[in-house]
Automatic annotation (TrEMBL):
One cellular component (GO) term of this entry: cytosol
InterPro entries on file: AhpC/TSA, Peroxiredoxin_C, PRX_1cys, Thioredoxin-like_sf, Thioredoxin_domain
Any GO molecular function: thioredoxin peroxidase activity
Keywords: Antioxidant, Oxidoreductase, Peroxidase, Redox-active center
Source taxon at top rank: Eukaryota
Family label: Belongs to the peroxiredoxin family. Prx6 subfamily.
Protein name as it appears in the record: Thioredoxin-like protein
Domain Thioredoxin: residue ranges: 412-576
GO biological process, one term: cellular response to oxidative stress
């Protein structure tokens, strides 16, 4: 059979496999057509299902190999038996379009087509992995396992493509591997709120507020040692930047302005800052890159840190016109609490802390400042100031991305792992994933304490404690106030509803959890961006199963109270469906007839359930009792 070679590079995103699912993990493929004999001007369209690009399938069908590190006197990589993953079917078909090399104008390494195969942390691959072990995924051979490909300008296959090209698509040569470590204790940063305003023509004031509940120590300059996201063959921009961050207040030769860039207001073209987005100097591998304790910055909760930055270098030489100053997101290494010198440890950050895994805290601001240049100088009468009030926004992305992960559009899909968080509750400090504890859980939010609709809702949920207990379901509420307010409000709820609230209520005064779970209305976000202030939390319900997966969501406007009977009904539906392998029809109540799913034949259904009533071939009913 004729072979058509295509170059494939392999890597991972990120170099940590987070078992909690909060940090998404993908195996990354970079594809490029390099052969001089490749003279077809059309793109190659590749079907991913059942190929190396379908990673779980490929690992169980000999297309990819999994290796585990076995440390010792000499590190060894031992192939892992993937039979524990069981039989893995092809995933839903996806497509990759690889352009022709004929009109390529840049180096091929800068022209890779990037494809990400998102890996479910609770999926079959996890069955073959061990905690705290390092792994590599490699191509097993030149065989890419591609079952269908064509030369086509389209992004999807059509019926006219038939079975595709007869020639076999193969890898030109193997390059790279997807390397990662399995971790279950990643530390995630608090949210920062960053505002900018001009003090005078060349002075920019940057104010940073730690919107979390814990004090953190941040490294504002020097080599940044944190979890680095990798593209198909190189780190992404800004991750390895040694230059001072915008909050650096130490004495230095240059102002920390590498995060700032200037845009022409008329054309939206970057005129300052586009050539200096990232640098990474070569270093001696044995050099001690740890910063000294004195170089670090402390960010206490709700305590502003103000830095005044000279931006004359960004403005000098601009032609007359209107411009906008914006901020590039940049990551910083950080630690919980105030970092102090340890006895016998010298002046630098302790080695044990420096080598630990961490997700960077992001310095980012959505503010943009308008300036007008006239006669080569800033026209002071045309400056635009941002509101002095702080706006609570969603946390900035963990890393800047040149492309988005499909699994993150949006992150809170049904079936996705419920994001973890730490918070204070009326029952004490809580780690949400530890609270879940392999139980069915209802997380429900409220706009504020001492509001009339919320008061009736919490009273109704509290009265149904026995019903939820009977189903093995625990409840936890959330309201956008502090703990002292919660305690007083609970007294009111108990009095007005003649009940006793026994479930915990999260204190989310900074809206951290509200933004994490997207419990914010678009109207409120629009008003917030326009007028400032703080976001209003809507009424949301999340039903989470023992595997920490989000199984059902409900969202209500602040004016509409929820229905506790409906919450109980859908829990009965989910639990019955999981236990019996059925679906439930409209308005179904426990004990009523259920629907046999289309994937089960009528013959098999009768063997499993007994009596089956067939209305249509696709619509069949049975009864599974209580």
């Amino acid at each position: 059979m004729t072979e058509v070679p295509i170059h494939v590079e392999l890597n991972s995103r990120y170099n940590a496999f987070d078992t909690s699912g909060k940090l998404p993990f993908s195996v990354v493929f970079g594809l490029c057509r390099l052969q001089k004999s490749d003279t077809d001007s059309r793109p190659i369209l590749v079907e991913t299902a059942g190929s190396v690009f379908d990673v779980p399938y490929a690992l169980t069908h000999g297309l990819l190999l999994l290796y585990e590190e076995r440390p010792g006197e000499s590190t060894k990589w031992v192939e892992v038996d993937t039979s524990s993953m069981g039989e893995v079917d092809e995933s839903n078909s996806g497509c990759i379009s690889v352009p022709s090399p004929i009109h390529r104008k840049k180096n091929w390494r800068d022209d890779l087509t990037v494809y990400l195969c998102a890996i479910d942390p609770q999926g079959v691959l996890a069955l073959a992995l061990k905690p705290r072990k390092r792994y590599r995924i490699k191509l097993a051979s030149r065989d890419l396992g591609v079952k269908k490909w064509v030369y086509s300008d389209r992004e999807r296959f059509s019926d006219s493509d038939g079975d595709g090209e007869e020639a076999k698509l193969v890898n030109s040569y193997s390059h790279g591997h997807a390397a990662f470590k399995v971790v279950d204790d990643l530390t995630f940063p608090p949210q920062l709120e960053i505002r900018m305003r001009l003090l005078k023509s060349t002075s920019l004031e940057v104010t940073v507020v730690n919107a979390g509940s814990e004090t953190v120590t941040v490294q504002p300059r020097g080599h940044q040692n944190f979890l680095v996201p990798w593209g198909p063959s190189a780190p992404e921009p800004d991750t390895l930047d040694d230059r001072p961050r915008i909050i650096d207040q130490s004495k230095q030769r240059h102002s920390p302005v590498s995060s700032l860039f200037v845009v022409n207001d008329a054309t939206d073209e970057i005129v300052r800052g586009h050539h200096d987005t990232s640098i990474c100097h070569l270093r001696d591998s044995k050099a001690d890159l740890r910063p000294t304790i004195d170089e670090l910055s402390i960010l206490k909760p709700e305590t502003p840190v103000v830095n005044v930055v000279d931006i004359s270098s960004k403005i000098k030489g601009l032609e007359d016109g209107r411009y906008k100053i914006r901020m590039h997101p940049k990551g910083c290494r950080w630690w919980r609490d105030v970092l102090r010198k340890e006895e016998g440890g010298g002046e630098k950050v302790p080695v044990r802390l420096w080598k630990s895994w961490t997700v960077p805290i992001m310095l980012d601001s959505e503010d943009e400042l308008e300036i007008t240049i006239k006669d080569g100088k800033v026209d002071g009468t045309r400056r635009t100031f941002c509101s002095d009030e702080f706006i609570t926004r969603p946390a900035a992305p963990l890393f800047r991305r040149g492309f988005a992960l499909p699994a993150e559009q949006p992150r809170l899909r049904l079936g996705s792992i419920a994001p973890n968080f730490q918070a204070k509750t009326t029952h004490g400090d809580m780690d949400f994933h530890k609270f879940l504890d392999n139980k069915w859980t209802i997380l429900f939010s409220h706009p504020a304490d001492f509001t009339p609709v919320c008061t009736t809702e919490l009273g109704a949920f509290a009265k149904l404690k026995d019903e939820f207990d009977a189903r093995g379901v625990q409840m936890i509420g959330l309201s956008a106030n502090d703990l002292s307010s919660h305690d007083q409000w609970i007294d009111d709820i108990n009095e007005t509803s003649n009940t006793t609230v026994q479930f915990p209520i999260i204190a989310d005064a900074d809206r951290h959890v509200a933004f994490l779970y997207d419990m914010i209305s678009q109207d409120d976000l629009d008003a917030l961006q326009k007028n400032g202030g703080i976001a209003f939390t809507i009424r949301s319900v999340f039903i989470i199963d023992p595997a920490k997966k989000i199984r059902l969501t409900m969202s209500y406007p602040a004016s509409t109270g929820r229905n506790t009977a409906e919450v109980l009904r859908v829990i009965d539906s989910l639990q019955t469906g999981d236990k019996k392998g059925i679906a439930t029809p409209i308005d179904w109540q426990k004990g009523q007839d259920v629907i046999v799913p289309p994937s089960v034949s009528t013959e098999d259904a009768r063997k499993k359930f007994g009596d089956v009533r067939e209305v249509k071939k696709y619509l069949r009913f049975t009864n599974v009792g209580q």
